[in-house]
């Protein structure tokens, strides 16, 4: 998504002078890239005006060149455009999924169950889709695959009764209801969702919609918000849609928050929404050809990272290796920002911060070190208290680990040896 923006930023970074002409060309390039990603034209226009107005101010922040100043503005504006990071707590709750036909609700129900199961909760899935013949079998199969509870009635006609009975039958910390879809949000669907809500009493009501609807996501989100008071959105099929950017931006500007994004077909292909990840993808990468020799000098063979699960111990080893070899300083020199303009979670990866992370890791249990996804609010508080840290610092460390793990999971050994694009992505995050 937005992959062309990276090329536009890199083209601007390569110019010798960041004058008005260069800034205008950058703005035009970003306009084109955003519109291709199906972002609303009026939002693109507003963003362009803001970049122009702020980028060409005569007074620069202390220590910055004009080019660095422009790049900082672009980075910040794109973050604003995409909204806020979702906050997800692993707490007992009831979740109602709603949406139109073809959105991927049933698969998403399984992904959410898997997400919370890994965080120590005991999920159950209830099939309230009595319209689609295959819905019962599909959700039951997913439940069996995940080894979670399931309730459904093969030939039921009343979804409200199914949910009412299912709620009594399951014994779970987290119950997810997969409701029926329609071609549109008609009166029948509104009433059905309203009746289910009365008997289920959900804590969260998630609208599930595919990325390929682009900026039309705004209208759909606002319609469901008005009808059933949704608490969040899950955007599916992000891996296959060029319009994913438009869908995410549309949700943000509809005052509904994106909670999760679906990035593939497997049960593990669900991510908590973090717009910073997308902006990091958009903004230029360092030229890492010259760093390959440094990678070979690391105490840990980089290919060993790929073997088995990437744990917090692996994360501790890698950030220490990055610091010990001086790779972070080299990476900073090659990025199109000064060190003061790299996001804090990159530029502050100092020896002191690495030591601080190590202290926090010492307060974690063996299970948490093997799978940090189990760390919820109460565990984060315990780790913070045990290490003399704040809960936000613990969340920051886990976020940095997660971003690095995502990159490790995505690239292969071939790109490790060849220094290709996936290697660039990983190395961009190794120092996070």
Short overview:
This protein is α/β, with parallel strands linked by helices. The protein contains 21 helices and 8 strands.
Would you kindly provide a written description of the structure presented here, covering whatever features stand out?
Helices cover 54% and strands 9% of the residues. By secondary structure, it is α/β, with parallel strands linked by helices. The chain folds into three domains: 3-82, Four Helix Bundle (Hemerythrin (Met), subunit A) (Up-down Bundle), CATH 1.20.120; 93-278, 3-Layer(aba) Sandwich (Rossmann fold); 285-430, 434 Repressor (Amino-terminal Domain). Strand 6, helix 10 (244-252) and strand 7 form a beta-alpha-beta unit. Helix 1 packs antiparallel against helix 2 (20-36), helix 18 crosses helix 19 and helix 19 runs antiparallel to helix 21 (421-430).
Distance between the termini: 21 Å
The CATH level-2 architecture of the largest domain is identified as 3-Layer(aba) Sandwich
Taking all Cα atoms into account, the compactness measure Rg is 23 Å
Helix content: 40-55%
CATH homology superfamily name of the largest domain: P-loop containing nucleotide triphosphate hydrolases
Shape: globular
Work out the number of β strands. 8
What is the CATH class of the largest domain? Alpha Beta
Strand line-up of the largest beta sheet: 3-2-4-1-5-6-7-8
* Structural class designation: alpha/beta
Low-confidence residue ranges = 284-307, 334-348, 411-432
Give the tally of structural domains.
Answer: 3
What is the string of SSEs from the N terminus onward?
HHHHEHEHEHEHEHEHEEHHHHHHHHHHH
| CATH topology call of the largest domain | Rossmann fold
- Give the amount of beta strand, in percent: 5-15%
Largest sheet data: 8 strands, mixed
Mean pLDDT: 78
Q: Tally the helices: what do you get?
A: 21
């Amino acid at each position: 998504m937005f992959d062309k923006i990276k090329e536009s930023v890199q083209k601007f970074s390569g110019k010798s002078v960041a004058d008005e002409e260069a800034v205008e060309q950058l703005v035009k390039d970003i306009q084109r890239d955003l519109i291709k990603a199906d972002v609303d034209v009026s939002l693109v226009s507003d963003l362009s005006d803001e970049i122009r107005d702020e980028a060409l101010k005569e007074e620069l922040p202390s220590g910055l060149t004009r080019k660095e100043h422009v790049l900082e503005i672009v980075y910040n504006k794109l973050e604003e455009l995409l909204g806020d990071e979702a906050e997800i707590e692993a707490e007992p709750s009831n979740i109602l999924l709603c949406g139109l036909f073809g959105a991927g609700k049933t698969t998403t129900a399984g992904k959410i169950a898997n997400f919370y199961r890994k965080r120590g909760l005991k999920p159950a899935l209830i099939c309230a889709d009595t319209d689609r013949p295959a819905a019962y079998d599909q959700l039951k199969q997913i439940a069996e695959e995940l080894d979670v509870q399931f309730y459904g009635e093969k030939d039921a006609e009343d979804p409200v009764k199914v949910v009412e009975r299912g709620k009594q039958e399951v014994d779970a910390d987290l119950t997810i209801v997969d409701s029926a879809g329609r071609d549109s949000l008609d009166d029948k669907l509104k009433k059905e969702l309203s009746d289910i809500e009365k008997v289920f009493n959900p804590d969260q009501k998630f609208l599930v919609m595919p990325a390929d609807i682009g900026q039309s996501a705004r209208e759909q989100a606002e319609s469901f918000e008005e009808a059933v008071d949704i608490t969040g959105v899950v955007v599916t099929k992000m891996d296959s849609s060029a319009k994913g950017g438009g869908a995410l931006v549309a949700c943000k500007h509809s005052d509904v928050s994106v909670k999760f994004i679906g990035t593939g077909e497997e049960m593990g292909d669900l991510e908590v929404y973090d717009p910073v990840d997308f902006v990091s993808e958009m903004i230029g990468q360092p030229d890492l050809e010259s760093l390959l020799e440094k990678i070979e000098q690391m105490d840990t063979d980089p290919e060993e990272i790929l073997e088995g699960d990437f744990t917090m111990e692996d994360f501790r080893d890698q950030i220490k290796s990055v610091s010990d070899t001086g790779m972070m300083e080299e990476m900073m020199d090659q990025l199109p920002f000064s060190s003061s303009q790299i996001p804090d979670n990159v530029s502050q990866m100092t020896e002191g911060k690495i030591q601080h992370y190590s202290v926090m890791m010492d307060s974690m249990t063996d299970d948490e070190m093997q799978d940090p996804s189990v760390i919820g609010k109460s565990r984060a508080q315990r780790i913070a208290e045990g290490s003399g840290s704040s809960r936000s610092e613990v969340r920051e460390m886990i976020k940095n680990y997660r971003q690095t793990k995502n990159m490790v999971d995505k690239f292969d050994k071939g790109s490790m040896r060849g220094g290709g694009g996936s290697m660039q992505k990983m190395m961009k995050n190794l120092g996070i």
